[in-house]
Structures are given as structure tokens and as C-alpha cells.
Amino acid sequence: MLHSDIKSRPTYTQLEPDLSGSQHLLIVEGDTVLPGRLDSLAGTFAPVEENLHTWLVGTQAGGLGLGKVWRLPGVADVVDAFACATRGYGIGDRLYVQGTEPFLWSVAKAAAIIGFSAEQIHLHHAGSLRRRVWCTHCHTVTEDVTTSIASCSGCHRHLLVRDHFSRRLGAFMGVMVDAEAPGEVPAVEESFA
Amino acid sequence: MIGETLTLKVAAASAISPSLRHLRLVAADGSKLPPAAAGAHVQLVLKGAARTHRNAYSLISRAGARDAYEIIVRRVPSSRGGSAFIHEQLKVGDVLEAGWPGNLFAPVRTARRHLMIAGGIGITPFLSYLADFALGGADYALHLCCREDEQHVFDPWLAGKSGVSVHWDADGRRLDIPALLAAQPVGSHLYVCGPAAMNDEVLELAAAAGWPASHVHCEHFGSALSGGEAFRAFLAKSGVEVSVGEDESLLEAIERIGVKAPCLCRGGACGVCATPLLDGEADHRDHYLSAAEREAGRLILPCVSRARSGRLVLDL
Fold first, then answer.
1. Which CATH architecture describes the domain B227-314?
2. Given a cut of 70, is residue B79 above it in pLDDT?
3. Is 50 exceeded by the pLDDT of residue B1?
4. H helix runs in chain A, sequence order
């Protein structure tokens, strides 16, 4: 039931600089950086270092040297930084994001709101598989879901976490698992640790 | 006036420069015309002395206007007859057959900013854009590159419009296209309409400046592209062979012998006329088929493309 044929889930790639871009912004969710990985990213992005900005978000990772570096406490600050952008972003700019899926899509959505097109945004999934889940019944978003069935933070229904993904919400669809037989909840598995 | 084609009457015609003629066309029966959005074109059937031409012209009238279609036609020295017919023979009161308006160059509604670059008469689609943007309050800029003596020709449509710059070939007046393209904010969309060499240059520079392909839009003039060496084409379904003259397109030759072929833009842009090619080697001149499709050689756009050598066999 979990491993469906649903094709809506995005596929992610390794990050590498798009040399046709003019300015490059790399946003990394700090605790998804494995030891040594930041140095390897620095190597990958060396060709565009002159025009590179790096935002390190959350827990600090070791290693430096990725163009101009800015540290931000959390993803909300990234969203704010885009929303209140005093510096204009150009049509030739490129955005690269590394992190968990909720992080990737929070950033991608904030960038899209100020005009970034999908072709300008490159996403690389790293770290936990935890999911943001959108309840189809009460429309509440539940964060940090790691189990196949989760309790909705809004209506407390038991939600089956489907692979059906919304780019707009950056969330997976959750549907009531015991709607037809109330109380009959299948075994909960830790699927998205 | 509902039907496959429209019947239009020339309500007014005036020379706005030695080589530009403005036409105001109304429904011949006095009814309302189908509305068209910004960027639309209309295909006119021009019955010249030697042969019939079907040319597409951008509508410069206000989007949604139903009283009249307005167009501006450049007299092309190398014209195959369409523009010469409009300039020399068409009179007020004449009746023309026309297709319904089509639109292959509509502005993108989600754009944060519209950047338009026009070469000469390529400004026509943008005249309808400007009328539209003025109503919607969109952020835009129009850069017209033209001959110095034509800098005021379009003033009647540009009067009172902000964001319009005119450039020509003189020191201090040329458009610095790379600088312009580099200075645009995220969410911008680029539209270019002009001579082929200018279009190609702008498209190349936009790609080099990192513009996402989905934010770059181009409209080509088709008419000058369709002539070439004469050749023969066999229409397999119809069972007839047609010879295509030097100054007519394959599509025109097919229409001349009375075989129905779908078409819309007649300039190699829309792909409506794409026809299976059963045999022969095509000289592809369209802007529609991908490199892989050209390589495969299974399709041809008869509105602009011709035979590279010998004879073509079409599934038509």
C-alpha cells in the first residue's frame, strides 16, 4: 500500500553548478551535511566561487570556503530572507538547495513566490527521509513524520502517509487509515527515519 | 458571423510611411468579429493577379476588440506578392476572406515583468501587448530597434505609454542587448519579434545570460522563408503529384490543386501543418520540429519547408 505507483514524487539530483547562471546561491540545511561533504561541495562549486553565495542553515557544519557565507538559524529565516529581499535576484541566477524534503520545498516555494522559475532551482535531497504530511480531511500540515501511519496534528485522525506529493505544499498526502473500520489501525512502521 | 472563415471588408487604409500600410478591417456583414487576445494574428487570403497568397499578420488592435481588426503591413521588396498586393491593389471597400484569429505569441500572465524587443515591423504584436498591459498594470519595457527615419512611425500607438525606448544604428542609440538581458529580475519574461538575424542573436544572448528557456519567447516572420528551387511532391493519400514553383511554398502548391491541408501560422512556428513525410529529403526551415525530429526525417512543415533534393512523398 505504501509503495504505490504514484509518480508525483520528485526525483532529486546531485548538486553541480549550472555554468550558464550569472549569480549562484547555495542553501544548505546544516545538519544534512556529512563530515567532509561541505569540502566536497566547495570543490564542486569552485568554478563559480566568484559569484557564489552560501547560506548555511541551522546546526553548523564544519568546513568553509564556499564563496560568501551567511549563517541563518532556521528555514523560517530563509523564507523571510526571500520574502523581504532587498537585493534583487536576476533572471539568470541559479538556486541550489540541499536538505530534507520539507526544507527543500519550503525554500523552493519561497523562491518561486519572488519569481524564480523551476529551471533556475536545483534540489538535492540529503539527510532524513522525514515527511511533511497534509491531511486531506482538515488540511492541517503535520511536520517531521517518520512513520507509515501518523496522527494528524489538527484532527488527530490516523493518517496513512501516501507517496502522493504536492510541490505546492511541499507535502505528502495523508488519508484516514481506519475510515471504513474505525479503530482498526494497521501496524505503524518507522518508514521515513 | 459564424463559419470556417471570416469575410472582412477594408474600412480604412492609410500609408503611415512609404513602406508601411495600416488597414482597418471590419466584418463585411456589419456584425461583430470574434475577439482575439494580445499577440494574436489573422490569416488573410489575398487574391493577386497571378495567384492567391495567404499571409498571417499580427493584430495591433486592442485585445478583445470586436469592432475591427487592425494590421500594419510592410511592403517587402522581395515579396512574393502578398505585401505588394496589399500596398498596390487593396482599396477601401474591398472584401477579403480571412481565417479566425490564432495566437502563438500571447504574453505570459504569471510574468513579474515583460521585456519586449522588437525589430522594425516586428513591433506589431507588441502594440496589442501595450494596450493590454496598460489595463492590467503589468511591469514592462519595450525596446524598438528600427531605422532612424522610422522612429516616429508607430507614435500613434505609443503615445502616452511609458516604458518604451527606441533605438537605431547610430552611436549612442544602439541597444546594448547583453547589458539589457543581464539586468532583468527573476520572474521576467522575454519576447522578441524581428528579422531572423536579430531574433537569433537575442535568443543566443539570452541563453548565454542564463535565461531559463521557458521565459524566452520568439515570433518569426515566415513569408520570406518559403521560396527556393522548384521541386515535385507526391501526395500519397490523394494520389496526385504537384509541382512546387520557386516562389510558392509547398503548402500553397497543395492548396492550389485543391487538397485540404490544416494550417495556422503559415510561418513554421505552430506545427499545425506538420505532415508525415513518407519519402524524400526535406529542407527544414521551421522553428517547430526538434533537432531529433529533423534528424528522423518523418515529418515536414509544408508552410515553409521544401525538398532538399528530388521529390517528396507526403502522407496527405
1. Roll (3.10)
2. no
3. no
4. 37-44, 75-83, 101-113
